Amino acid sequence: MEDKSQVTPINSRHRDLKALMAPFGGWDMPIQYEGIIAEHAWCRKRAALFDICHMGEFIFQGDFEAGGLEDVFTFSVATIPVGRSRYGFLLNDNGGVIDDLIVFRIAEDKVMIVVNAATINNDFAVISQRLKGGLFTNITDATGKLDIQGPLSRDVMVAAFGDQVAQIPYFKFITMNILGVETVVSRTGYTGELGYEIFIPSGKVCELWDLLLKDERVKPAGLGARDVLRLEVGYSLYGSDIDEQTTPLEAGLGNFVNFDKRFIGKEALLKQKGEGVKRQKVAFRVSSRRSPRHHYEIIEGDQTVGNVTSGVFSPMLGCGIGIGFVSARECPVGSDLIIQHERVSMDATVCELPFFSGGSLRR
Asked: Domains, the chain, ranges and CATH?
């Protein structure tokens, strides 16, 4: 069967580096280069470079209120200061998560919306349908995105592009000239470490990749390490931990919902808030080095109470970790669980998130 996965502009670079490639969100992406554990360690100790060109980017320009954008997400776009960004959700009528995303306030009348790879086309269609005006453009194909993450990432970026990078606070960004083109450099990421997301025209992304990898403090890392890094700090993965059948309240992400504003799905969430959720997210540590896997059963006592949605071996904790969903009011912190699938069985204990909090994120 023919592989119809899309490729990022750096695809040939990954193959030159002998990366293990696999489909992800409709894209042919690097899973690992020298190994997930080694790449994870490099990110936690130095600086890792990730190809994130598969993510989607949209631009909205116009009046946020009159154009209807203010009512689209679970947070206010109009109150984001210029040069800052905000995380939240695009919901359906039932309060389910169509996507989780970040909005960057570029100017008083302009934002960039960054969405997940597998949901690009649907997100663009849904948002377009909800708008009443303004100019809404999909710039995904024209935009490249690299993430450099790790405690040495600031030093690397300053050495390459100047001292102004060092002045960017967490969840703020600047627009600057890199390789002769206008580039957005944002102090954000998905690893729990100090890091930057770099949005650059796609025609320049290979040159930027090569430039950053010339620094001996930087190594490439694939989606395997990225998944371990994000789960250690408790971040949700769209398509696994959140989806259109899962609400932010069930996923323990209610802090990213502003109930003081209008948004589609609000009524469903208010009803769920009043009645109480029927299921809830739970985090657990395994008593061995075994990795829990997606869809493994979560058992408390002699009853199956839920299923695993994400699980990995955590190098920082030296054991398996995971999150999943269980029946509401089940499994308080400290509860003993069994994670089971066919002949696989592992003992686990419910814990709080994040699993690992010793990263360099806010340095």
From this structure: 6-53+141-232 (3.30.1360.120), 56-138 (3.30.70.1400), 278-351 (2.40.30.110)
